[in-house]
Amino acid sequence: MKIRFLGAARTVTGSCYYLEAAGRKFLVDCGMFQGNMAEHNSENFRFFPGDIDFMILTHAHIDHSGRIPLLVKKGFTGSIYCTSATAELIGIMLKDSGHIQEMEAQWETKKRLRKGLDPVEPLYTVEDAEKVAKYVVPVTYNKTITIDENISLTLKDAGHLLGSAIIILNINDEGKKKTITFTGDLGNVDIPIIRNYEYIDGTDYLITESTYGDRLHEMREETQSLYDIIINTMERGGNLVIPSFAVGRTQELLYILNYYLDIEKRHKLENVQIFMDSPLAIKATEIFEKHKECYDEEALKVLESDVAPLNFSNLNIIEKADDSKLLNNKKGIVIISSSGMCEAGRIKHHLKHNLWRKEATIAFVGYQAEGTLGRRILEGEKSVTIFGEKIAVLAEVECVPGLSGHADLNGILKWVKSIKNGVKKKIFITHGDAEAAENLKEKLKEVSNAEAIVPDLYETFEL
């Protein structure tokens, strides 16, 4: 029985784990690399896709699911196990990603042809993404699924995103029974709409994320912080631009703006025009409204009096690109747009038109991977290049860490400490920058007797 770390090792993106056990070859996640690691996306897989018997997907975010269409394109024909909410979300997200791949390849080809170079092919297309659906097998939380006589899986709620899952694998490999658990992305506690993460009874091996393995979320009330940022920006006559993940974070923002403010503040915000400018976010919101089995008690109670908690009178939905361009001429508005790390999509246009304005504000509400445009802005670069043009960063730059979808250091430690029968063998720390992973490794000694390991990219371990 062995595991190989093919992504998210000493980095946050590209989640992909290759396992061989009980005569089967399978994957957990197959995500895209982002930021400084993006060149890895076009590399050949370190296995033959046609040899993979099945895969399990923790959740829909592109850094966990984004290379599945490429996997299918290269010959994978096995089942993809995930929750029903994840199944629906990847149905829209992977097609959107395919569209981005096509557009970026088209853009790069134009530049190359001018130089007399050969054109480039997209990593995969919308058509490739559409082929994924026939392999998806929806799984219910806390219901054990038998893959074969030697392998079974159970999914528990990870509390990170609608449909996000902790994966528990029970494997009998040549008479040796082992339990392997993947946290996926553990959620921050009390995220709007969805439930908190669930706990497990025990495991032999644990593969845990460490995105915030060296940080604590500020104990400042995120709704107050967001409210203050909006009001201060409007008083300056500027626009507030919020780069937001289309799936998950955008819906949480809408819910917060609609329900987490007191009557006086909500009334004051009624005069502020808020624009949701992301076709993908619009489709994702419809899926969020459908999957109420993932809601927490608070959200279910809200539904008793409001059948559309993600909509309100001063929310403007932008679908067409021409309507998005009209926002360039407006002042004193809030623009929520994707992508969350500013690597693609309409957000880049809004940054181009607002970053250089002193009266504007850019507010980050999610993790920014190393090397991404969002990370460079957040870390204080004085100018950035967008669509080949250098743009001065003169706008106010804010971060609202309380809105993170990831558990912080204490949240991860609490989850590990709460494992009823502990981790018996080893803990592998992934999905975090090297510093965060190494810090979590040291801190885990306080809550677990298991050996903690920070694997390198492509490193293999016998279990």
From TrEMBL:
Q: Does the keyword Isomerase apply?
A: no
Q: Which residues form the Metallo-beta-lactamase domain?
A: 13-234
InterPro entries for this protein: Beta_Casp (IPR022712), MBL (IPR050698), Metallo-B-lactamas (IPR001279), RibonucZ/Hydroxyglut_hydro (IPR036866), RMMBL (IPR011108)
Enzyme Commission code(s) on record: 3.1.-.-
Keywords attached to this Swiss-Prot or TrEMBL record, sorted alphabetically, are:
Hydrolase
The Beta-Casp domain covers 250-377
Instruction: Read off the SUPFAM superfamilies from this record.
Output: Metallo-hydrolase/oxidoreductase
Looking up Pfam families in the UniProt record yields:
Beta-Casp, Lactamase_B, RMMBL
Q: One GO MF term, please?
A: hydrolase activity
- Protein known as: Ribonuclease
